[in-house]
Specification:
The chain is mainly α. The protein has helices at residues 3-21, 25-41, 50-64, 69-73, 77-84, 91-100. Helices cover 69% and strands 0% of the residues. The chain is flat and about 50 Å long. The protein starts with a helix and ends in an 8-residue tail after the last helix.
Length: 108
């Protein structure tokens, strides 16, 4: 990864964050909490950027339709977040496999 890739990545991330800030306050709060959760548990697909981008697009569509965030995703934000990544491997799974020598059954 060269310096240009890093700079371009930062530009894209800043543009993404600007879109998050443009969301209605309730959407922004839920998005940031879900983002924090995903960063903490580390689903492998998070690094390609598609998960957060798709979530943001979903939220933008709900906001444009005039729906409240909980009306869109339900009252249990944690269950919604877990459902998004239920079939994804996490970095914790990979680490567990590396120390146990066995493939993890988590996320399958």
């Amino acid at each position: 990864m060269g310096i240009r890739d890093i700079i371009e990545g930062k530009k894209q991330w800043r543009a993404h964050l600007a879109r998050v800030k443009a969301l209605p306050p309730d959407y922004e709060i839920v998005y940031k909490e879900m983002q924090r959760y995903f960063f903490k548990i580390g689903p492998v697909g998070l690094t390609d950027g598609s998960l957060l981008t798709e979530l943001l697009e979903f939220f933008e569509g709900g906001a444009a339709a005039g729906k409240g965030v909980l009306e869109l995703i339900g009252d249990d934000v944690a269950a919604f977040a877990d459902d998004l990544i239920k079939d994804s491997r996490t970095y914790a799974d990979i680490y567990q496999e590396s120390i146990s020598g066995k493939p993890s059954t988590a996320g399958k």
